[in-house]
Amino acid sequence: MSRQRSMESILSSEFVSIGELVRLTDSRYSTLKFYTEEGMLPFEQAEENLTRRYNREETVTRILLIKKMKADGLSIPQIKEALNMDT
Amino acid sequence: MTDLKLAQSFSMMALNGQSSIHMTTVKKVALRSMAAAVILEVYLDSGFTEAEDKLTLHKDIRDASHPTLYREAVIQSLIHKKDGAQGDLRWWLKRASNLSNKKLKKFEHAMSDSLKELSLLEEIPGLLGCDLYYDSAGVEMKDYRSNIDAYTRVSENIRAEILEDGFVTDEIICMLWLLRESGCMHDFFSRSELEKVNARMNELYQSALLAKALFPIQIHHGIELGIKQFLHLKTRFVKTSIGSTINFFFPMLERSKAVFIETEAWFSNPNQRLNDVITRLESYGHEVKVIEKGSFSTIKIDNLVYDAMPHYVMMKVPIQGVRLMPKRPL
């Protein structure tokens, strides 16, 4: 049986799944998926396993930063620019 | 952030928006599924011993020394029956979902108390109480409202695990089955997403032992779950199935309500109309968030999304107002 990880175990691990990011940041799945597809959230993907893995600390910080910029009224292209990305 | 047990997470979703005073058909279906969730929770926590396809409860769980009252409310009801507490998973789930109304009520109180203690559930005046007819008649209605953040966290986690490629945990396999059996799938997934959910459930059925055992079990009662919708969806999903797979049909149960709220002024503009609606809803303790403004606005009331459209009802004089229509993911 494969059980869901407890919050304590998620908070102590280096990599997390998108579902765990949803739990950590109270964000919507579709929002995080959109950010990922737009290249705003870097991830790793092992060949044999399709699950995307995100660096927990780095990604949570980035999501919180994106949320703040959105609250400040920035558009997605502006946020991407602020994150030093090509639009 | 607390780690919730399976039955608690599911109950938060199942009780949201349900009447806390009356035993409606929708609530009865939710409670039956919640009782089944308790069995699955014990099963996942290795609370059963398995021998020759029969599951027997461990002694410590059977002896009612467990601190969670909601578990006790279900488990004690089952092991008190004379024919012995032993059977396969199907047997346990069927038994749990067939508790009497009196026992379901007792279980509802135990579960709602446990969630209220964690500030995850509260009772608020019912949305239908804001309706012109109910409001003017002074009818008291009360609904459960789940904590909005926790509700979003649980529902979005399910969506993430099942819609994302890769690994699916046992909790999510159980949640999918519970959502299907309680007729809630359509509240969380759009039509196109449901086709993906169906495909993923087929994959899980082939690859995960728990899914193989659980997915073919049905505890829902056809009449209660709107058989018409069921048949309609059946035709859609047949398209997506292949060879050896089985179809998982998603029956649907309407849980939100269509409400009419009269507006103060005749021919008021869309903003005034919307403000009148928000004022009425907030005076009843609802949390309202405007998602889209316009002549047809979209608003989120507590945890459910509604379209607010101009409407009138004919009495001795026509009464102008706004009709709130439940909106599902498209």
UniProtKB/TrEMBL annotation, chain A:
Keyword tags: DNA-binding, Repressor, Transcription, Transcription regulation
Alphabetized InterPro entries for the sequence: DNA-bd_dom_put_sf, MerR-type_HTH_dom, MerR_fam
Gene3D superfamilies in the record: 1.10.1660.10
GO MF term set: DNA binding; DNA-binding transcription factor activity
Ranges of residues in domain HTH merR-type: 17-85
Protein name per Swiss-Prot or TrEMBL: MerR family transcriptional regulator
From TrEMBL, chain B:
Domain of life assignment: Bacteria
Protein known as: Uncharacterized protein
Organism of derivation: Paenibacillus glacialis
Lineage of source species: Bacteria, Bacillati, Bacillota, Bacilli, Bacillales
